[in-house]
């Protein structure tokens, strides 16, 4: 029987407790899970690719999962998965809006390589509303993001907001 290698791709800007939940649960479904930290300039990232990579690497190390590795990539997801020898793409879902987009992406990926399966994991109910974009917005407007991200990530986001003078009116 062949090894199951999974890819969990994302921008992770920043990595949230929702991402961590999917990583923890996804790592149980495969023999080896690769967290693919990708670039996506259209999302106007708060952190550089290198900063996000280090952030994800630290968070994964703190989870103590021996079968998880973090790899950066800037390529078509299917090509990255093929290069890594992956046969599973893991995607997290929070809401119906996520499903519509992810369903379309899974269909396109299947057209590109039907040997790679997409597996959807529903976010834990308590974590469903968490989105990186909203975490950043809350931080910019002076809100407390501590219940959405780990303490080190919270500190990094708040430091970046201060550093870039992004505080909004509140």
Dominant shape: globular
Structural class: alpha/beta
- Tally of alpha and pi helices: 6
Between the first and last Cα atoms, what is the distance in angstroms? 58 Å
The quaternary organization reads as single chain
Low-confidence stretches: none
How many β-strand stretches?
A: 5
Main location: cytoplasm
Cofactor: Mg(2+)
Enzyme class: transferase
Catalytic activity: (R)-4'-phosphopantetheine + ATP + H(+) = 3'-dephospho-CoA + diphosphate
What do you see in this structure?
With 170 residues, the chain is α/β, with parallel strands linked by helices. The protein has a single domain, classed as 3-Layer(aba) Sandwich (Rossmann fold), CATH 3.40.50. Helix content is 42%, strand content 18%. The protein has 6 helices and 5 strands, in the order βαβαβαβαβαα. The protein has helices spanning 17-26, 49-63, 77-84, 96-112, 132-140, 151-163, and strands at 5-10, 32-38, 68-73, 88-93, 117-122. It has a 5-stranded parallel β-sheet with strand order 3-2-1-4-5, with helices on both faces. The radius of gyration is 16 Å and the shape is globular. The N and C termini lie far apart (58 Å). 30% of the residues are buried. The mean pLDDT is 92. Keywords: ATP-binding, Coenzyme A biosynthesis, Cytoplasm, Magnesium, Nucleotide-binding, Nucleotidyltransferase, Transferase. Homohexamer. It is found in: Cytoplasm.
Question: Could you give the topology of this structure?
Answer:
Layout: E1 5-10, H1 17-26, E2 32-38, H2 49-63, E3 68-73, H3 77-84, E4 88-93, H4 96-112, E5 117-122, H5 132-140, H6 151-163
Parallel strand pairs: 1-2, 1-4, 2-3, 4-5
Main location: cytoplasm
Keywords: ATP-binding, Coenzyme A biosynthesis, Cytoplasm, Magnesium, Nucleotide-binding, Nucleotidyltransferase, Transferase
Cofactor: Mg(2+)
């Amino acid at each position: 029987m062949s090894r199951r290698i999974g890819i969990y791709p994302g921008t992770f800007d920043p990595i949230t407790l929702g991402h961590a939940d999917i990583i923890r649960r996804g790592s149980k479904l495969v023999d080896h899970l690769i967290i693919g930290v990708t670039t996506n300039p259209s999302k106007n990232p708060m952190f550089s690719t290198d900063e996000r990579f280090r952030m994800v690497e630290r968070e994964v190390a703190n989870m103590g999962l021996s079968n998880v590795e973090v790899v950066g990539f800037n390529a078509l997801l299917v090509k990255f998965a093929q290069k890594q020898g992956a046969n599973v793409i893991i995607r997290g879902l929070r809401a119906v809006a996520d499903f519509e987009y992810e369903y379309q992406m899974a269909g396109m990926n299947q057209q590109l390589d039907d040997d790679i399966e997409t597996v959807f994991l529903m976010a834990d109910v308590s974590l469903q509303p968490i989105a990186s974009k909203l975490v950043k917005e809350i931080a910019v407007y002076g809100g407390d993001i501590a219940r959405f991200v780990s303490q080190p990530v919270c500190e990094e986001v708040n430091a970046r907001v201060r550093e870039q003078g992004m505080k909004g009116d509140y």
